[in-house]
Amino acid sequence: MPGFELWGTEERKELNDVLQNGILMRYGFEGPRKGIWKAKELEAAICKTFGSNYAQLTSSGTSALTTALAALGIGYGDEVIMPVFTFVASFESLLSVGAVPVLVDVDETLTLNPDAVRKAITSKTKSVMPVHMCGAMADLDALKAICKEHRLLLLEDSCQSIGASYKGKYLGTIGDAGTFSFDFVKIITCGEGGAVMTNREDIYNKCDGYSDHGHDHKGNDRGAETHPFIGYNYRISELHAAVGLAQIQKLQSFLEIHRRNHASLKMILSQIPEISFRRIPDPAGDSCSFLSWFLPTETITREVVNELKAQNILAGNFYWYDNNWHYIRKWDHLKNAVTLSALHPDYKKAIMHHTNKDFAASDAIMSRCISTAISLLWTEEQIKDKGEKIVTAVRRVLKQHSINA
Ligand SMILES: *Cc1c(COP(=O)(O)O)cnc(C)c1O
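Output (structure tokens, whole complex):
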């Protein structure tokens, strides 16, 4: 998955351009920066690479989501439908703009179940936020149809799926807005960073101002710029943008490696008929940064996880069901609305109401799922070795079960 695995001379070269002139900020300082504008260059590269009209870089994927929500006018009184399997950033960003996260089930795509989305719509629903988890896409045709029918905004969290596509369009460019994260473990990295993509000029202009204290960025005197609305500082630095600029040039080669390694590993695991795989709405668009697979029951899955741990090969294999950061089961802080600053009591009640529900349908899927992260550095030999070790562990557990049955 992560671009940091292939750090090298390209990143150092881009960084050196910035270190040479010492202008670490993305705005202003026209003279001393001597034509070096890494953030602007990366935004242009994002537009070109992914086919988006506009891109706004931010300090993180989380701040990209917050910026997109604000630019879409989502806030007080609004409900946003999001999946129970994601990263905590999804609800963090919603809380940061005062919107209510409405949690709904996922299906075998590991993303929003469109039927569950339909059932969750109320008169307060403003937006649907699919999260393209583990490198691949949500069922976007179904979700787009729902948004159209109910006049809802579609905000794609594509933070984990840079370079993945759906029916020929890159994830993050299909909804009203979409976000990327360039944190250290994402498909390409800036160290820290994020981006909002949109085809709508009005949304872009709001993102541009919101992520820089409301600056309208008109004219060439920062102090004289006006502030049509209140913003925050979610700026990326030139140093981070420089790293991203090198990484985005390598994205296609990363994806090729992913796809090759993913196919090899999948072939090995396919030997076992009891293993099934994540449903991918458009397999050709999978970034292949993860291979996600299911076992028949939670008990068997837990025993396989324990077996992988015992053999010291669990690293890189994620059992999300027990993970504190990715699945609702362990989000007690959200379910109890534990915040440092006080919330309006009605808002707090709404958060607790929508998070303390029965998600048995998702439990039944997530408790049987293991995701194997695909490394850019694996050799064919290593993939074979890893795959065979997983196969042996699964066979051992399955045999034990057939003996006990
Ligand atoms: C990483 C991630 C984010 C947030 O990105 P940061 O850059 O770490 O703030 C948001 N959503 C998902 C699904 C992510 O994986």
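The chain has two domains: 3-250, 252-400.
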